[in-house]
Amino acid sequence: MVTITVDMDKCQHYGQCCFEADDVFALNDDGQLEYVKEADESRRADIESAADVCPMQAITVE
Amino acid sequence: MAASVVVVGAGLGGLRAAESLRAAGFEGVITVVGDEPSMPYNRPPLSKEALSAGVHAAELEFRRKPSVADVNWQLGSPVVSSHLAARTLTLADGTQLAFDGLVIASGIRPRRLPIPGPEAGRHVLRTAHDAMSVRDYLAPGRSAVIMGAGFIGCEVAATARGLGSEVHVVAIDEQPMIRPLGAELGLGMRARHLKHGVDFHLGRTVQEFLGGDQVTSVLLDDGTELPASVVVEAVGSVCNVEWLEGNGLDLTDGVLVDQGMVVDFEVPIVAVGDVARHPNSLFGNIPRRIEHWNIPTETGRRAGASLAALLRGEQPDQGPFSAMPAFWSDQYHHKIQSFGMPGIATSSQLVEGSADEACIFEYSDDTGLVGVVGVDRTAELAPYRKQLLER
Ligand SMILES: Cc1cc2nc3c(=O)[nH]c(=O)nc-3n(C[C@H](O)[C@H](O)[C@H](O)COP(=O)(O)OP(=O)(O)OC[C@H]3O[C@@H](n4cnc5c(N)ncnc54)[C@H](O)[C@@H]3O)c2cc1C
Ligand code: SF4
Q1: What ipTM, to 2 d.p.?
Q2: Percent of chain B having pLDDT more than 90?
């Protein structure tokens, strides 16, 4: 299981993460980030990619 | 013996290249040489929240993947010369390093213009150290003169206003950020800055810095004299490639690489990030340098895989490189987000909102849509980005 944490104090809602793993990260209609906190192990590579491309370095993957 | 790789430049590109070498199965020794004393850290906050709040490099450090825990970080002394055919590098402190494979990740530095007058009081903004030294001068009762109205100049202007400093922006361009945003949105951004009290001197150049030991004012070409507690020069960049001279590489604008980020040379060499002039199949494969934050990650991934293949004696992936350039900027809580290459467009068109409020602009050239920029419309840009990917 992959555990995902986004530091919402750091997140600026740029949505870069959404392009790497759109099943985990999405911007809602108000432009705010929503994400799922757990994902299947098979999604790890894309989720780590999302953490890499976050300009605020707000995403932690465990 | 296992092969060794030296990475020159301990920034984002260098870090991502090292991670990608490991991800591609390279098990040899990796040494990253950096002239800054710090581990790789995030630069964009240096003109934004970190400049405002006074944050040190250590707090901006990138998380590093466990796979690079065994990398040697050789920090604090730059590479000054190289003999690439012999696979050797020389550092300023005299250290000689040998390598089997090389990653060029040395980035760029701010351009300095030869302008008469005192040197003290003139600053640039590239490193955490630069940001800390500028910050001391941004306060009520102080006056900041910012040269250049590109993204960094405009971000510093916004941050400086937020800290209560008087701000004068001097630029030869007719609108702020005109190259990446076009004249219409540039004008709209100017309106936002005017609302926050920035004083613009556009179409102007600095003729001389005035003062004794320290700059106290700035003389423009039209005779205007602006008070200056600090000058921040944000007038473009120069590639850090001097250490590569004398090896016969094409260094006309950064380091020329192919779609795999590989340098055309007899020894395995790749280049990444701001310094790499690379083709992108989304934009006609014309080699270009792109100074956007997502490029070190995208080029670093590709370069690490290519170098690992070359060191195994294999041909690197010859497929096209087609990463979407992405850029963001924050000015007075306005969020600018750009996808593609609006800077190469020949025309821009407002498609949603209005230029001085939340809006979306499309940018095109004779091949069609080449870029999109949204201001305070981040969530609505996804379909435009998709359209760009389908070019
Ligand atoms: C103030 C500022 C704000 C920015 N804001 C944004 C933004 O909002 N959005 C965005 O998309 N992009 C932004 N950027 C751009 C982004 O930060 C860069 O594209 C990115 O840092 C490039 O990474 P890099 O690894 O290629 O180069 P760098 O991060 O510059 O790393 C290169 C490293 O190599 C070192 N080096 C150079 N020469 C040598 C040598 N001879 N020997 C050893 N080491 C050497 C340098 O000192 C440096 O540490 C900003 C940049 C700055 C400076
Ligand atoms: S990329 Fe980072 S800052 Fe942007 S929405 Fe995702 S978590 Fe937030």
Answers
A1: 0.93
A2: 97
